[in-house]
């Protein structure tokens, strides 16, 4: 049968076109004389996929492999043969799955969507929990996304942010994205985005920038070249780096767009401003960075540190159109605004409200220590040394007092980690005493700042700690004679433990003995073999302690691979290999010893449920961060956290008490961190009575709890309504696992034959049938094949299309557990990108294109002799060139007495699905063509009428929506202008004095360190400087709001709600359904 009629090849406005292997809408055509080439056309093509660039201007006649499709190009039923029903269904589905942003309700068509369509969950290798849909829907309801994801540790904030990111990309609302995070989390973010959402990001740091410039030249700017970037706070805040970023952010003054589209800031509490004084470099960087982004998503499990000024400062960076930094109590209006942007749920709430607990419980268990007399003597000797230093410092000035506290702290923390770490620092302290010159107090404070600064490399931390111990020794040199008795007692205690010289383990070590007992009880069988189903994670603060533990454990358990170590500063490939091994049930590893610097981003919930704090970090937030490595989303078993306890050592007993208290009130940790800090300072540095400190801590915690309350909507723990909306949208897309599988197989089988997938095994996995078609082989190798090992080519994993296939039942709790040997395919996977593109090419005229029509027999409406299922692609673009309406709908048109009757009420495409895959008979074909001859003009008229009606409906709804949006924005800017002006007027000395009085009261209650406000109270100049900083900040904020008001109301909203040209309606395919045989 002859092929379809070709177009004349001349591009025209409104045509659907394919160029550069992408599909788009022709929005502009400029013809001109091309000399010898004749008439040529400069064509602007607005692409329909979410990739970059979003549009290009092409010289049409010089492009290769281009196709054109006129808006009303119906299938040529009379000249082409029908498609096999299964191929036809796959073509229609593939087109449907590329048009996922309806502006009008598919069931009505005259009003906007009531239920926001959610497409991102279909574009990820994830199983989305109901509660994870809540922030996605919340974000989509915002004209400019401002979202603070403050869920509990381990609830899956990264997945929630990824869903928002993916959805905005699919809707073509964003292109340029920056993910800002701690340096240790960069690789994990890139891996999560690639593996879960098939989104690629470039890491930008100093080495990557140098490599880029070696390749492209010294002027290459990564912030301009890469559309999606991951970087760290520490890198971007460097002045030269931030200046390069700013240079890539220039846009015309009258542009409706900001330079960047989406900012995701992880661990955002690190970027919050201080309640008083100069801001940190990271906070200053965020203040300059955030206004350059249209949309912002901040992630933190501890959004409020108990200081309203810090909390509202973070909110101001998130959305200055809603919030201002202030120390005043939150008004009801501000609380309502916070509820609009904050999503905060706790594991306990979700467990309490669900059908069954989704998250594991966490238990705390103390391991009792029996300290030897030698260990007790070491602890007592240090206690005496601490008391003597504090006594000597009491008569000195404030700087000396602080330095003395640090001298005690730097040694005391090492002792509470392990005797070996203390012995190392003590030897360096003694070396400082023997130095030729004593150190100045300023040098001690410099060493303190170096130790306090968080860095990712534990080896560097050890070096700084060693330098601090030497500096402290050199500074105390004038007091050596006064400290001689206490120092000699410490020397004797270390000698009794066999720690006078380096390189030896202690003769007595109750903590290590308790660790061995724990391993015997929980990880080993009575016969001494390691159990296959249990693993232990041991955390410590110091690499010196890690090295000691690893050395002794390896001597005790020499079996290859049983023990792994992880510390900050390891190369990323080695770190990732260790994580993969520990999470692999088949790997022989049973014990992982890790430092705090290595714990960020360490997800170990898949294989372990036991965790031991070998030492207790003095920062309770860090303690909770350790626990979150196992107690998180995806943990199938209840988690047991172990720590040491003894009544024979007051300091160890106090830290055990702190660990228990943190466990009890972990959900209020943000408001109580200062309280714990002060209690630890009093007991372990100042040497205050343990019983007195405990009593004060209990009272202070009672006062502090709730001080960091974050207003939120209580109903947001659920997500059941969002889940129903997702199911409804899937039905509108005719999308389910069988449809995914069949569509991919049909695409791979084009001109290569079927089957392309082998039958499923008992676990529902399918293998690709070999040989893999040539056009697909490279893509399969790049995106599916596992990495080679030891020079052996990697195998292809099994394929599944339903996340339920990766859900395992562990102890009655269903857990989504991805597997290395199984790939979960989804619409965002590169294989599906290729499949959908292959079907898109089939729609364009050509020798091998599809006929786009089919015929079936099935049930018909009463009185109809046939039914035409006409599938139409609808597309409308606004004046910002955003495709705000892109949808594929199927219209059911009955044929009665040879005429086309009015369309039937809307039904979801899933309801029209037919299992009839039988090819039509010659009789069916003749009957269908006879009907088509009678109605084809009416169908063409229906398409034309649909385009006119869609254009009119969209313009009407856009006009109403624009009026509402403008009214809301004007009211919001007006309110905020008044609020900021009031803050400027109220930035007075009197108000500042009231704040200082409140802070002094909190300091007296143990809620704030005295030194945090002492400088301000003592110095009028400091107070004036604080007021000047505040006034300047508010003036800058007011100016920023005015600029944003002009951009939004003058340039953005008018163009967002103005349709560009007319809506387009393209016939995709049609099915002629005949009556069932025998009817």
Topology of this protein?
Blueprint: E1 16-19, E2 22-33, E3 39-47, E4 55-59, E5 67-69, H1 85-96, E6 100-101, H2 133-140, E7 146-149, H3 157-170, E8 177-181, H4 186-197, E9 202-203, H5 206-216, H6 222-225, E10 228-232, H7 233-236, H8 239-247, E11 260-265, H9 281-289, E12 293-299, H10 308-318, H11 332-341, E13 342-343, H12 347-353, E14 362-368, H13 373-393, H14 398-417, H15 419-433, H16 441-452, H17 458-475, H18 480-496, H19 510-523, E15 536-540, H20 543-556, E16 563-566, H21 572-582, E17 591-595, H22 596-599, E18 610-613, H23 620-627, E19 639-645, H24 650-664, H25 669-685, H26 690-704, H27 720-732, H28 737-748, H29 774-783, E20 798-800, E21 807-810, E22 813-816, E23 822-824, H30 830-842, E24 853-858, E25 866-877, E26 883-896, E27 899-900, H31 909-912, H32 922-985, H33 989-1004, H34 1011-1018, H35 1020-1056, E28 1064-1075
Parallel strand pairs: 7-12, 7-13, 8-10, 8-11, 9-10, 11-12, 14-19, 15-17, 15-18, 16-17, 18-19, 20-23, 24-28
Antiparallel strand pairs: 1-2, 1-5, 2-3, 3-4, 6-26, 21-22, 25-26, 25-28, 26-27
Helix pairs in contact: 1-28, 1-30, 2-3, 3-4, 13-14, 13-18, 14-15, 14-16, 14-17, 15-17, 16-17, 24-25, 25-26, 28-30, 32-35, 34-35
């Amino acid at each position: 049968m002859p092929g379809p009629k070709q177009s004349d090849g001349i591009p025209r406005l409104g045509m659907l076109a394919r160029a550069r292997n992408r599909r788009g809408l022709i929005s502009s055509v400029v013809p001109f004389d091309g000399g010898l080439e004749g008439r040529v056309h400069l064509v602007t093509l607005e692409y329909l996929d979410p990739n970059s660039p979003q549009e290009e201007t092409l010289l049409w006649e010089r492009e290769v492999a281009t196709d054109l499709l006129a808006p009303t190009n119906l299938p040529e039923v009379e000249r082409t043969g029908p498609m096999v029903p299964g191929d036809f269904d796959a073509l229609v589905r593939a087109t449907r799955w590329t048009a996922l942003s309806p502006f009008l309700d598919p069931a009505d068509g005259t009003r906007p969507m009531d239920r926001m369509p959610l497409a991102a969950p279909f574009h990820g290798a994830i199983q989305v929990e109901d509660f994870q849909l809540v922030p996605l829907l919340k974000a989509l309801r915002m004209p400019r996304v401002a979202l603070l994801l403050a869920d509990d540790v381990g609830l899956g904030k990264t997945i929630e942010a990824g869903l928002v990111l993916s959805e905005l990309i699919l809707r073509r609302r964003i292109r340029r994205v920056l993910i800002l995070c701690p340096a240790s989390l960069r690789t994990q973010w890139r891996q999560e985005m690639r593996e879960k959402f098939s989104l690629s990001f470039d890491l930008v740091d100093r080495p990557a920038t140098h490599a880029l410039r070696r390749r492209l030249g010294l002027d290459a700017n990564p912030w301009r070249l890469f559309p999606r970037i991951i970087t760290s706070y520490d890198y971007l805040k460097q002045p030269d780096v931030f200046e390069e970023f700013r240079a890539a952010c220039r846009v015309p003054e009258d542009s409706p767009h900001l330079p960047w589209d989406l900012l995701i800031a992880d661990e955002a509490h690190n970027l919050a401003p201080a309640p008083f004084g100069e801001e940190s470099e990271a906070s200053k960087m965020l203040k300059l960075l955030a206004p350059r982004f249209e949309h912002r998503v901040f992630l933190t499990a501890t959004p409020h540190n108990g200081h309203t000024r810090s909390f509202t400062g973070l909110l101001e960076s998130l959305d200055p159109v809603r919030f201002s930094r202030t120390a005043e109590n939150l008004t009801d209006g501000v609380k309502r605004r916070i509820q609009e942007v904050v999503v905060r749920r706790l594991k306990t709430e979700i467990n309490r409200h669900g059908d069954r607990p989704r998250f594991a419980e966490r238990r705390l268990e103390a391991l009792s220590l029996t300290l030897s007399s030698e260990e007790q003597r070491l602890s007592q000797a240090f206690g005496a040394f601490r008391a003597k230093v504090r006594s000597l410092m009491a008569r000195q000035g404030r700087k000396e007092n602080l330095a003395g506290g640090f001298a005690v702290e730097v040694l005391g923390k090492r002792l509470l980690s392990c005797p070996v770490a203390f012995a190392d620092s003590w030897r360096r302290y003694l070396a400082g005493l023997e130095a030729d010159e004593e150190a100045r107090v300023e040098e001690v404070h410099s060493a303190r700042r170096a130790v306090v600064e968080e860095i990712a490399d534990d080896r560097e931390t050890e070096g700084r700690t060693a330098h601090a111990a030497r500096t402290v020794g050199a500074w105390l040199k004038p007091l050596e004679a006064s400290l001689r008795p206490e120092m000699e007692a410490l020397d004797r205690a270390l000698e009794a433990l066999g720690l006078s010289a380096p390189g030896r383990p202690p003769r007595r070590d109750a903590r290590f003995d308790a660790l061995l007992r724990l391993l015997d009880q929980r990880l080993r069988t009575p016969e001494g073999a390691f159990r296959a189903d249990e693993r232990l994670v041991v955390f410590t603060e110091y690499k010196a302690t890690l090295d000691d533990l690893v050395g002794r454990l390896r001597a005790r358990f020499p079996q290859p691979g049983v023990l792994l170590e992880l510390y900050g500063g390891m190369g990323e490939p080695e770190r990732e290999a260790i994580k993969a091994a520990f999470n692999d049930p088949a790997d022989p590893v049973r014990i992982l010893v890790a430092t705090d610097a290595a714990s960020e981003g360490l997800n170990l919930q898949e294989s372990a449920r036991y965790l031991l704090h070998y030492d207790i970090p003095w920062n309770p937030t860090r303690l909770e961060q350790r626990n979150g490595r196992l107690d998180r989303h995806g943990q199938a078993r209840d988690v047991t956290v172990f720590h040491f306890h003894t009544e024979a050592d007051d300091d160890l007993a106090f830290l055990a008490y702190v660990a228990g208290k943190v466990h009890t009130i972990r959900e209020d940790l943000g408001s109580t961190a200062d309280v714990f800090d002060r209690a630890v300072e009093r007991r372990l540095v100042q040497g205050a009575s343990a019983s007195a400190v405990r009593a004060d801590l209990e009272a202070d915690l009672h006062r502090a709890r709730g001080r960091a309350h974050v207003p939120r909507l209580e109903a947001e723990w659920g997500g059941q309504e969002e889940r129903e909306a997702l199911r409804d949208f899937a039905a509108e897309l005719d999308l389910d696992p069988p449809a995914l599988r069949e569509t991919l197989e049909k695409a791979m089988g084009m001109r290569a034959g079927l089957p392309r997938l082998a039958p499923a095994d008992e676990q529902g996995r399918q293998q690709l049938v070999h040989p893999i078609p040539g056009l697909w082989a490279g893509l399969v190798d790049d995106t599916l094949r596992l990495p080679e090992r030891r020079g052996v080519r990697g195998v292809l994993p099994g394929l599944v299309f339903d996340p339920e296939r990766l859900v395992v039942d562990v102890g009655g709790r269903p857990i989504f557990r991805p597997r290395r040997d199984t790939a979960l395919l989804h619409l965002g996977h590169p294989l599906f990108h290729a499949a959908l593109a292959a079907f898109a090419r089939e729609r364009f005229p050509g020798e091998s294109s599809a006929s786009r029509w089919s015929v079936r027999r099935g049930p018909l409406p009463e009185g109809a002799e046939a039914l035409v299922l006409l599938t139409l692609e609808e597309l409308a673009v606004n004046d910002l060139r955003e495709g705000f309406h892109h949808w594929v709908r199927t219209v059911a048109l009955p044929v009665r007495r040879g005429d086309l009757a009015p369309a039937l009420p809307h039904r979801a495409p899933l309801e029209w699905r037919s299992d009839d895959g039988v090819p039509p008979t010659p009789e069916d074909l003749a009957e269908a063509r006879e009907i088509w001859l009678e109605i084809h003009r009416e169908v063409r008229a229906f398409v034309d009428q649909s385009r006119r009606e869609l254009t009119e409906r969209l313009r009407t709804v856009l006009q109403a929506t624009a009026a509402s949006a403008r009214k809301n924005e004007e009211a919001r800017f007006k309110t905020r202008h008044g609020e900021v002006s009031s803050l400027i007027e109220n930035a007075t000395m009197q108000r500042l004095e009231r704040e200082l009085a409140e802070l002094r009261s909190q300091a007296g209650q143990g809620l704030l360190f005295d030194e945090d406000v002492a400088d301000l109270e003592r110095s009028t100049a400091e107070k004036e400087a604080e007021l000047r900083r505040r006034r300047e900040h508010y003036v800058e904020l007011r100016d920023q709001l005015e600029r944003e008001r002009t951009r939004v109301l003058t340039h953005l909203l008018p163009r967002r709600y103005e349709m560009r040209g007319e809506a387009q309606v393209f016939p995709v395919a049609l099915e002629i359904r005949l009556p069932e045989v025998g009817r």
